[in-house]
């Protein structure tokens, strides 16, 4: 499912993720290595024409992982022991983008956001979202989970 379709289906949850990603354009990316072990990597994330998109250096390990096995996890980053927002995650499949107008749209969006433009060669992937979740602690503690079949669910928080 495209980001826009996910956001239409679960606006509260999508808003929590989008706010965090738009704050710093960074995510933690989970891929699978050839030997089956997980790989966690920082990556930039941008929203382009209703898609969640990731750009990567040519032949980076994470890009090669996704070419071999498209399963992906994308998570907001945290830099403080007591973060100001919760953890947002999407799970799905990475779809490599070869279409030049889509690649250019990502480059345009990235340049507008951080005043730097990627140049070819580079990998571009769109995230096909299959599920999402959010957990926060402290005063605004909550646990949310979304799947296309069940929609948005509010779950019991571990601190309750």
Describe the structure in your own words.
The chain is α+β, with helices and mostly antiparallel strands and 160 residues long. It has a single domain (3-155), classed as Electron Transport, Fmn-binding Protein, Chain A (Pnp Oxidase, Chain A, Roll). It is 28% helix and 41% strand. It is built from four helices and eight strands, in the order H-H-E-E-E-H-E-E-H-E-E-E. Strands 1-2-3-6-5-4 form a six-stranded antiparallel β-barrel, surrounded by four helices. Strand 2 and strand 3 form a beta hairpin. Helix 1 (3-9) crosses helix 2. The radius of gyration is 16 Å and the shape is globular. The protein starts with a helix and ends in a 5-residue tail after the last strand. The mean pLDDT is 96.
Which helices and strands appear, and what pairs or packs with what?
Blueprint: H1 3-9, H2 11-24, E1 26-32, E2 38-48, E3 51-56, H3 61-68, E4 71-76, E5 87-96, H4 100-114, E6 123-136, E7 142-147, E8 151-155
Antiparallel strand pairs: 1-2, 1-4, 2-3, 3-6, 4-5, 5-6, 6-7, 7-8
Q: Could you tell me the mean pLDDT?
A: 96
Query: Looking at CATH, which topology would you report?
Result: Pnp Oxidase, Chain A
Strand order of the largest sheet: 1-2-3-6-5-4
Secondary-structure element order, as H and E?
Answer: HHEEEHEEHEEE
Identify the CATH class. Mainly Beta
- Count of DSSP helices? 4
Shape: globular
Number of strands: 8
Q: What is the rounded distance between the termini?
A: 32 Å
Could you tell me the strand content as a percent range? 35-45%
- Let me know the largest β-sheet: 6 strands, antiparallel, barrel
Task: From the alpha carbons, calculate the radius of gyration and give it in angstroms.
Answer: 16 Å
Integer count of domains: 1
